[in-house]
Fold:
Amino acid sequence: MRAIAVINQKGGVGKTTTTVNLGAALLRLGFRVLLIDLDPQANMTIHLNVDPSGVDKSVYDVLCGKSAVADVMLECAGLSVVPSHIDLAGAEVELVSMVGRETILRDKLATLFADREKAGEAPFDFVLIDCPPSLGLLSLNALTFAGEVIIPMQTEYFALQGMTKLMDVVELVRSRLNPDLHISAIVPCRYDPRTNLAKEVLDEILRYFGDKVTKTRIRSNVRLAEAPSHGETVLDYDPESKGAADYLCLATELTGVAMPT
Amino acid sequence: MRAIAVINQKGGVGKTTTTVNLGAALLRLGFRVLLIDLDPQANMTIHLNVDPSGVDKSVYDVLCGKSAVADVMLECAGLSVVPSHIDLAGAEVELVSMVGRETILRDKLATLFADREKAGEAPFDFVLIDCPPSLGLLSLNALTFAGEVIIPMQTEYFALQGMTKLMDVVELVRSRLNPDLHISAIVPCRYDPRTNLAKEVLDEILRYFGDKVTKTRIRSNVRLAEAPSHGETVLDYDPESKGAADYLCLATELTGVAMPT
Ligand SMILES: Nc1ncnc2c1ncn2[C@@H]1O[C@H](COP(=O)(O)OP(=O)(O)OP(=O)(O)O)[C@@H](O)[C@H]1O
Ligand SMILES: Nc1ncnc2c1ncn2[C@@H]1O[C@H](COP(=O)(O)OP(=O)(O)OP(=O)(O)O)[C@@H](O)[C@H]1O
Ligand SMILES: [Mg+2]
Ligand SMILES: [Mg+2]
Structure:
């Protein structure tokens, strides 16, 4: 099972778009996928046509309350989904003095996986976690559980700012809480191949991260921006679009598995 | 003097681009402009060709240290600029238990304006503050000093999310610290008039904010994204561009003053 934190403390770079559509692409390639929304803004939840205020319990109740992950998990278009809720905004304050507060998600997911195994249910192949645009307790829970980190990056000036801080946090979690954690991919997002600026920034990202940068660039495509307003992944909303093609390409690059024909 | 906090806790919506280029446009219309960078990422500072690590003292020393604003202020292409520095990231923690910690910027600016008046220097017509993508102590200092709030908003799905929280914070500062504070303009940014999505989101923003939304939309224009990599405002970098035209238009709309011919 590959457990992936989709993380970047910069806002609006493509974390949610990547979590949802890479998840959908992995499903299309035949994998079992669990998506976890760890952002109080609940964009991932809304994107998948789930109304956070209509949900009985969310990841908030898992982190701050007594709920098991199995109690809050939903099925959306073939994907297993742990929804979020604005109450999660209070988590950092509520958990500030709890011992082992970064390990709660990992422990509760361990229970989920163990229970599923006992019940003879097929294990997940991929767990993708959509992180909020910050490096606080919620992101720390994601990094403490995950084996790998995927960093979506916009090909705009200032894109590399804050990367040192992110790498420092990843290294801190790796050395103190989670020795397996490593950065597995930098994904250039919202890439506009027509502009020189995007190419220059891409070159700079390549100089900085070398072959951790995926060959697949997720190009700027309005279908990716429209899909959430229809409550669908881009693969359902417009399977012929560049957005759908790019995320399938990314899923193939990350797994070595090609599209079934 | 109009004191404006350029604020939105969402990342990447156009706060820095608006602070820099609206400031430059106001200068072009004949006003005296002071720009203050309140983001530890110091994008505004870098945009104006100032290297934060090369600066002796910054707004960090004003908020957390003993510096006067006059000690750290620079001149950049006709604009007065208070630069930022990554050390500002520590400000929230350093000032957490200081009495009146939201009023530090206001007090230090009051000293600046009083000293300038004594010295017979012309007062500023506009003070624009570039806020970080959060509603913490730095943004609170901006809101406690400013008379008006300008909110840049991206015309994308999820744009209105978080607006209630922002309005609540503005109301809180207004009622407890700064009775003059009010929202004077919502500026649609990165607007792509060719897509239906942008028009739909703009309609929703108009329904929500009515005539606080500026008639001027700042259109998506690669020149605005390229200008910071040249250390210039878009008015210097490409005065014929749509980006330059839109920000001049915005400055005229906010002041009633037309371009000198
Ligand atoms: N490749 C793309 N082409 C066009 N639009 C995109 C693309 N990727 C993302 N977007 C749009 O950009 C906006 C920001 O993307 P997204 O929500 O995925 O970023 P995020 O990093 O999750 O943001 P946040 O930090 O607020 O959680 C959304 O409106 C999304 O639809
Ligand atoms: N109208 C526009 N057209 C094209 N690019 C734009 C436009 N406005 C902003 N950008 C680009 O979008 C990115 C984000 O803009 P900007 O830095 O102004 O946002 P911000 O709200 O200050 O972000 P942050 O929350 O990180 O401080 C930048 O790379 C900028 O150059
Ligand atoms: Mg997101
Ligand atoms: Mg900014």
User: Anything to note?
Assistant: The mean pLDDT of chain A is 96. The pocket of adenosine-5'-triphosphate (ligand 2) is lined by residues A 10-11, 156-158; B 11-17, 39, 43, 133, 189-190, 218, 220-221, 224-225, 228 (CB under 6 Å). Chain A has twelve helices and seven strands.
